[in-house]
Amino acid sequence: MLLASLCLAGCFSPSSDLPTGEDAYRIMPPAEAGAMQPSYRIGVLDVLSVRVFQEPELSFEQIAVDASGTINFPLVGEITAVGRTPIELSEEIERGLGTRFIRDPQVVVGVVSSALQRVVVEGSVSEPGVYEIAGTSSLLESIARAKGLTEVAVDDEVIVFREINGERQGAVFNVRHIREGRVPDPQILGGDRIVVGFSAVRGVYRDFLRAAPLFNVFTRF
Question: In which order are the strands placed within the sheet that holds 107-113?
Fold first, then answer.
């Protein structure tokens, strides 16, 4: 009965139609060593910090970018934040303050939290959830944020979903080979979704082992 269950459990693979191997890396390549990461661009619902040198009343630990992509800054008014880098937004606030109010203002904008820089890790990991990343991450780093794979995880078929040019795409990676250094660790970007599959074969076997001591007790009577 156990053998039959194991055979039936291992017959279906939901990732069978997705690219693997070199095809997967063409869609979602690893980060190039020493490559400069693109500057972060502010997104809707990001939370920013703004500090104006020697102007505590104009310095804020948190300012949220609203749904329209703007912030409302004292003495300056409504400013478009979405699509700009923190440096570009700093310069825009400096221009607004320097026009009439402050001589040679110095402004520093930081990103406290980013709604776009989040990765979803789900499936057979210890702590599935949504995790923030700083700029970019890797597949192994993202799984580590979720406290690693469970004992029934399929480590040779981990799926990464990503929106590329408005189209949802997926690719399958072998985490076991990545850990062993046999293949590169793909780059993970904000907005990616990582799905670690459940091995029904391992699950059935695990449940069998857990039930075995109880089974032995009943067979004694």
Answer: 60-64, 47-52, 107-113
Instruction: Name residue, tokens 């063409």.
Output: 26
Span 60-116, pLDDT tens digits:
999 999 989 999 999 999 999 988 899 999 999 999 999 878 889 999 999 888 776
Q: Over range 187-198, report the average pLDDT.
A: 88
